[in-house]
Amino acid sequence: MQYSTEERVIQYIRKKIQAAKKIVAVLGIEMLVEGGGYDLDTNEETYRVEEEYGVSPEDILSTSFFNAKPERFYRFYKKEILGMHVRSTPAYDALLKLQQQGKLSAVVSQNFHGLPKDISIQNLIEPNGSMYVNHCPRCGKSFSIDYVINAAGIPQCDKCKVAVRPGIRLLGERGDTKLMTEVVNVYKEADVLLILGKNMYNDFFENEDLEHEQLKVLFSKEIFRCERKVDFTIRDEIQVILPIIVE
Predict the structure, then answer these.
(1) With CB atoms 3.0 to 4.6 Å apart as the test, which of 91, 151, 173, 205 could cross-link to 155 if both were Cys?
(2) CA 80, CA 40: separation in Å to the nearest integer?
């Protein structure tokens, strides 16, 4: 398989992984795209969404839009988010291998879609929520993803008759404090932090109070601002290079 990462870099990261006791993987947009999804933050997708829905994806996926225009929100959400079917890739197999070796202490999913159905990770943290979790904002009753998909128009609570609230973190909302603290803690404890693609919230990976050496590796074809805070940036496809690094 063709890849551009230098062999010396692969060997260095591989040795660090072999010596590591705690590895944390952060799943970003590239993991979603390589599995058959798409990045709504690209110029092409933003233009397409604006043409079809009259507003940008960022505006639609906001609390204010959901509250003001739930019908338009759900028309977009059902097709563009819930209709995005993501499959497994060799990159997930590499993570499972790390888990089998007892090295993978946590996986942090920055995406709404979590993991492909055939992938079982023991410690999955979803700070931005999950499309599989839905509830009534009034009585708190839970609703399945199938209930939301199959509802005609706006999925409503069968008791309160109000719009069901998707369990994802809408733009403009604060993250769950408990989950954010958990994420920070697993970042701090990691010997190796594998940042597998960018994320929509532009989180930074700064751990200035670490008491141990930590290797941060960013896997992304795009250039973005957190790169100055990592040790290496890998430009190859994650599904190609990660299995090579993880023996």
Answers:
(1) 151
(2) 9
User: Which tokens sit at 218?
Assistant: 């960013």
> CB neighbours of 169 closer than 8 A, spacing ≥ 6?
127, 128, 129, 175, 176
The span from the CA of 163 to the CA of 195, in Å, is 35
Going by their DSSP bridges, the two strands 129-135 and 165-168 should be labelled as antiparallel
| pLDDT tens figures, 35-94 | 999 899 899 999 999 999 999 999 999 999 999 999 999 999 999 999 998 999 999 999
- Determine how β-strand 104-109 pairs with β-strand 23-27: parallel
Q: Is 44 helix (H, G, I), strand (E, B) or coil?
A: helix
- What residues have CB less than 8 Å from 165, skipping those under 6 apart? 66, 134, 135, 136, 137
pLDDT digits (tens, 9 = 90+) for 111-163: 988 898 889 999 999 999 999 999 999 999 999 999 999 999 999 999 999 99
| Two tokens, residue 230 | 């990592």
Q: How far apart are CA 140 and CA 134, in angstroms?
A: 9
The phi, psi pair for 170, rounded to 5°, reads -75, 150
CA distances (Å), origin 11, targets 6, 7, 154: 9, 6, 52
- 69 closest CA partner among 52, 53, 51: 53
DSSP-assigned states of every residue in 105-165: EEEEE-STT-S-TT---SSEE-TTEEEEEEE-TTT--EE-HHHHHHSSSS-B-TTT-SBPE
Mean pLDDT within 26-41: 93
Nearest in space to 92 (alpha carbons), one of 183, 27, 13: 27
